[in-house]
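Retry 2 of 3 after timeout on previous attempt. Resubmitting structure tokens to design endpoint.
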């Protein structure tokens, strides 16, 4: 484990990076602004299909770009939900052609069943596709950077090529609050962490669909992050009033019925501190998290 070194990019390099965003951009906008617009012009179960399976889990796995919109995202979401016993939501294009016309960005997708399921979930994970034809890449993003890092570490430990979603103006970072994946419940009814968006390149999705063992390994490792590492992280972050200092007890009592400012919370500070380090395994991250929460 080592602390990350942050380098200030020059203006020239930043410009090149922004231009490079074209290479990993998600799919271009479809022709519809939102679900109401789409549903007025397309026919359910003819042009598109919605699957909503609420298993009373605290975790929802979903894609709003399933079926022919971004092939492979439905299969990944369904397999992960089945493996972990999680809720599942799929919006799938099923037209004979031109399914990209059904693409609604994750920041504009507002189909009521999807919104309801995610708003009632503690944890939300979405799959989207990126355009790279041959690259075998997975990008992890979303507001919940701690869970994103755990997913990244689990996948990397199994040999998958995983990168942080670029936090520059691209459409795969998944950090905007308007993104449906970040509309899940507050952690401990107080802390805004959001969800995780997993962007999978076309080359990677094609490879996963062609090799079942490869596919199952990919799904298993994401499930391990969600079912094993993430519960440990949540338990570690959980406030324990009996062990809290007088100052933190006073703050807790003063804010009992109100949400903390996210940027000022102890949890947020702890997560930011932990994420400054590089880790070789999920266990290293959890151990560091435990160390920081004891301070």
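Retry 2 succeeded. Sequence:
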């Amino acid at each position: 484990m080592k602390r990350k070194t942050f380098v200030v990019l020059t203006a020239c390099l930043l410009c090149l990076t922004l231009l490079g965003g074209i290479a990993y951009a998600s799919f271009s906008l479809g022709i519809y602004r939102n679900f109401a617009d789409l549903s007025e012009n397309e026919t359910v179960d003819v042009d598109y299909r919605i699957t909503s399976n609420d298993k009373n889990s605290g975790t929802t796995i979903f894609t709003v770009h399933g079926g022919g919109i971004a092939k492979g995202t439905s299969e990944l979401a369904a397999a992960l939900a089945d493996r972990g016993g999680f809720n599942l939501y799929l919006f799938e294009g099923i037209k004979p052609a031109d399914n990209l016309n059904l693409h609604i960005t994750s920041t504009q997708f507002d189909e009521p069943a999807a919104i309801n399921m995610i708003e009632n979930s503690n944890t939300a994970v979405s799959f989207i596709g990126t355009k790279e034809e041959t690259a075998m890449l997975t990008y992890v993003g979303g507001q919940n950077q701690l869970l994103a890092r755990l997913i990244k570490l689990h996948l990397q430990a199994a040999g998958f090529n995983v990168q942080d979603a670029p936090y520059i103006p691209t459409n795969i970072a998944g950090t905007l609050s308007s993104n449906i994946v970040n509309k899940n419940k507050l952690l401990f009814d107080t802390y805004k962490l959001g969800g995780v968006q997993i962007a999978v390149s076309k080359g990677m999705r094609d490879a996963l669909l062609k090799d079942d063992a490869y596919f199952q390994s990919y799904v298993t490792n994401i499930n391990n992050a969600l079912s094993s590492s993430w519960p440990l992280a949540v338990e570690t972050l959980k406030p324990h009033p009996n062990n809290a200092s007088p100052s933190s007890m006073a703050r807790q009592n003063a804010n009992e019925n109100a949400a903390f400012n996210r940027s000022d919370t102890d949890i947020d500070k702890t997560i930011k501190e932990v994420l400054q380090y590089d880790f070789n395994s999920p266990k290293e991250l959890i151990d560091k998290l435990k160390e920081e929460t004891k301070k």
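Attempt log closed. The first strand starts at residue 2 and ends at 3.
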